[in-house]
Structures are given as structure tokens and as C-alpha cells.
Amino acid sequence: QVQLVESGGGLVQPGGSLRLSCAASGIDFRIATMGWYRQAPGKQRELVVTITNVGRTNYADSVQGRFTISRDNAKSTVYLQMNSLKPEDTAVYYCNLYGSDYWGKGTLVTISS
Questions:
Q1: Alpha carbons 46 and 40: distance in angstroms, whole number
Q2: What does the pLDDT look like over 37-60, one tens digit per residue?
Q3: Which residues contact 86 (CB under 8 A, 6 or more apart)?
């Protein structure tokens, strides 16, 4: 049974940082491409970043240079370090086994002063 569990969301002031985590189980994490998506209120879910099994990354233009994805294969966990956060980064962030229908339940990130 595939499970993806996100954590680390919260309320942060503009310019602040957060680190999201996604713990995966039920998959061979070592060979998985993982992705982070987000869905802002009233908007469609959008791809934020992906990371392949060998660490190749692909960022959305809107987060390039501010967000960093990483993975720890020993812990079957993928991380999203978010810096210089902006109000427009407010969204529910979801972890995804890229290309699959396996999703976490999401973690809410709110950027507000």
C-alpha cells in the first residue's frame, strides 16, 4: 500500500522559510521520481518541482532560486526547502509519486504578515 505523508507546513511571514517533508512507504523509493505540487485557493494544482532517482531536478519558474528539493533514500523521504517565501506561495502542498495517482493529503503553507 502506497502512502505519502507530508509535514512541515504552517504560517510564515513573507520572506521567511519553511521545510516540507514527505515520507513515502510502499514504493521502491530509490528508483522513484518524486514531485511536489501545490494548489492555491481557487486555482488549479500546479507542479512545483520534481526530482529523479539520480537527483536531477526541474523547478517551476515561479520558485526557481528560492525552493530546493532534496531526497534521502535511506529514509524514503523527499524534502522541499522554501526560502524567501511570498504571499503567492500560499497553498496546500502535495507530494506525488511523479506520473502516478499516488498523492499525499497535503500540508498547508500560509504566507502572511
A1: 9
A2: 999 999 999 999 999 999 999 999
A3: 14, 111
